[in-house]
Amino acid sequence: MPDVPWLHIVGIGEDGLDGLTPAARTVVETAEVIVGGDRHHGLSDRVTAERLAWPSPFDALIDTLTALRGKRVVVLATGDPLWFSVGARIGRAIPPGQIAYHPQLSAFQLAAARMGWSMADLETLTVHGRPVEQMIAFIQPDARLLILTTGAQTPGQIAQFLTSRGFGQSRMTVLANMGGAQEARYDGTAQEWDHVVPAFNTLAVDCIAAPDAALVPRVPGLADDLFRSDGTMTKREVRAATLAKLMPMRGALLWDIGSGSGSVGIEWMRAARSARAIGIEPRADRRAMAAENALALGTPRLDLREGIVPQALENLPAPDAAFIGGGLSEATFDAVWAALRPLGRLVANAVTLESEMILSDLHAKHGGDLVRLSVERAEPIGKYRGWRPAMAVVQWSLVKR
């Protein structure tokens, strides 16, 4: 027998109860318990019901809700509860058959309408309760961004990110209290941004690149000089080939073993929405460099951990892909291969003869692709030019089936 929804999650806008459909308004008006923030309670203050604020810590929300089962419970959220909102968090913990969602127009839809932008032609992001730096990965020429912000200071921070990367001419618009009597709009450019804006706002950015703007695409193979490094990093061309075999996918987890400057983990996270990476690196100075690179390139959630493999791999969440750039051994391979999820991708690179021998033996036992990558760059030789070869890299890759 299917579950009967006992929990209703209702999206509400600045126009309060008047903006709800009749069915959603009835759900709110007949609730016994309403859970939400102060703003949500204020928008529905004419309803008489027990009121609960968001719990602290917020992770206690699920326990709070499940303890209320048997009552008519409503959670109020802003706009669409399943679009960067609390509904998704609740839906991961409570079976979907027990929840009824009542969406309202989202802040993204309202902002797109105010700007006259097509939703199909822009990126929707949130930095609400998240590191602001993660929007950096989306700064591209001619990109249009709609961003749910963290507070009044966020547009200024984003203006600085844009300006420092040669996008100071980008047009910025802050929209606040959309759909309500106090709706407000603030326009300007990133390089001249000086507005004081309400804390609850949505930011629209029309990215405009100057001739000297930094070009930092999300396609793997970023220039080496974008990373701070002590020289022991996977170089650009090899890194692009490595990421192609690792196959970044939305929400997927990478183990970056011997992460060094973090270049592979950072490019993995940039290449797919919500992609995650755990970087394992025994040296503190390299972990510090990797953390600095992650902030600068828009992946502040790169998870860097100290440890020696294979012991450091114990108790980590199972990965969708793994890159062995350091600490290569048959024991490390065995631990990684056992942990990889079905269809997991493994890539290992070697530059020394000893490491090549390990990869050759593993390839003989397990199959996969074994290739040798060689890169040469044109450099001056006196008044002429010639090809200078970099160290060749032997790369082994295979998919767990």
Strand order of the main beta sheet, please? 13-12-11-14-15-19-16
Termini Cα gap: 36 Å
What is the string of helix and strand elements? EHEHEHEHEHEEHEEEHEHEHEEHEHEEEE
Number of strands: 19
Give the overall shape. Answer: globular
Main β-sheet description = 7 strands, mixed
Number of domains: 3
CATH top level label of the largest domain? Alpha Beta
Uncertain ranges: none
Range of strand content = 15-25%
CATH architecture of the largest domain: 3-Layer(aba) Sandwich
- Annotated CATH topology of the largest domain: Rossmann fold
Number of helices: 11
Judged by helices, strands and strand pairing, the structural class is alpha/beta
Helix content: 25-40%
Q: What number is the mean pLDDT?
A: 95
CATH superfamily of the largest domain: Vaccinia Virus protein VP39
> What does the radius of gyration come to?
25 Å
Summed up:
It is built from eleven helices and 19 strands. With 401 residues, it is an alpha/beta fold.
Layout of helices and strands, plus pairs?
Blueprint: E1 7-12, H1 22-29, E2 33-36, H2 38-43, E3 50-53, H3 61-66, E4 73-78, H4 86-91, E5 99-102, H5 107-115, E6 123-126, E7 144-148, H6 154-164, E8 171-176, E9 184-189, E10 201-206, H7 236-246, E11 253-257, H8 263-271, E12 276-280, H9 284-296, E13 303-305, E14 321-324, H10 330-339, E15 345-350, H11 353-366, E16 369-373, E17 376-381, E18 384-389, E19 393-399
Parallel strand pairs: 1-4, 1-5, 2-3, 2-4, 6-7, 11-12, 11-14, 12-13, 14-15
Antiparallel strand pairs: 7-10, 8-9, 8-10, 15-19, 16-19, 17-18
Helix pairs in contact: 7-8
